[in-house]
Amino acid sequence: MALKKIGILYGRERSFPSAFIEKVNSKNEKDILAEAVTIDKVIQGQASEYAVIIDRISQDVPFYRAYLKNAALTGTAVINNPFWWSADEKFFNNCLATKIDVAVPKTVLLPSKELPDDTIDESFANLAYPLDWDHIFNYVGFPAYMKPFAGGGWKNVYRLENTADFFEKYDETQQLVMLLQEEIVFEEYYRCYCIGGKYVRIMSYEPRNPHHLRYAANFNPSSAKLKLMEDVVLRINQYLGYDFNTVELAFRNGVPYAIDFCNPAPDADLKSVGQENFDWVVETAATYAIERAKEQKADKDNLTWGEYVKRSAAGKKLY
Hints:
Oligomer: single chain
CATH topology of the domain at 4-82 and 286-295: Rossmann fold
Strand content: 15-25%
C-alpha cells in the first residue's frame, strides 16, 4: 500500500494543528502520515500529494479555496467539501432548517445598505424601495439581532432595541448583506461539535460572557435533553454535508433553537475551548481523518455531499 498523507491547512492557529498532527502520527497507522500542507505550485488538473486535507483557513484565503477544489477534483478527501462550503451561507442554513423540523429564530434577509461595487441604482430594478419595513419588523420583533448573512464570527453583529436603533446600525453596514433575526431569550445554551456527521460533543456555552469565559458555563442537561440535542446536530450536519462543524443551540421553553450552525472552521484553540473539549476534538478529528484516508480512492470523488444535494441530484423528495 502506498503512503497516504493527511494534511492540515491552517492560518494563525497553532494549538489544534500541531496537536492534530501529533495525534494522528502517534497512532502509528500503517502507511498513514499527517503533516502541515505545503504548497509550492498549483497546476490545473494535477493531483495533490494528500489523500486527505483538513481545511481550517480557505474561508479567508481564496487562493486556498481554489487549490482545494483542484485537489478534490483529483481525488483528495477535503474536510470540509470546498464546493459546498463555497455555496453555503447562514441564511440558507436557516431556510433549510425550516424544512427539516429544526427550530430557528424568525429571520429576514436584508440587501446591503450601500450599492455593491460595479453596480448602480438601475442594477436593482427588481428590488422594491422602500422595503416593507412594517411587515419585517412585526415579523421579527424587537429586541433583535442583525448580523452578516455569510458569517464572520462576532464581527458586525448588532443587538437592536427598536426601529430607530435598527436604522442607525443598518447605516453602518456598508456593502454587507445582513440578516435581521429574532432574539431568543434562552435558559440554557450549548455549542456542539459534529465531526464526520456522526461524532458529537455537546458543550455548555455562555455567549454573553467574555470570549475566554464562554465555555465556563455549567449547565447540567438531562440524558433526554442530550439525546434531543444530538439528534438535532446530526440532522443539520447530515443535510448540509459538513464533516467538521459546530451547532449552537439555545433552549427557550424547552425547545432547542439552532442559532448558528454554519461554522465549518470552528474555534478549536486550547485556550478558548478548554482542555477536555480540546482533547476530544483532537482525538476525534484524528480518528475521522484516518478513517477517510483508509477509504480514499485515487481519481474518485472522495468528498462528503449532504442529503440536500444528494436528494436533489437523485430527483428525490428533498425533506
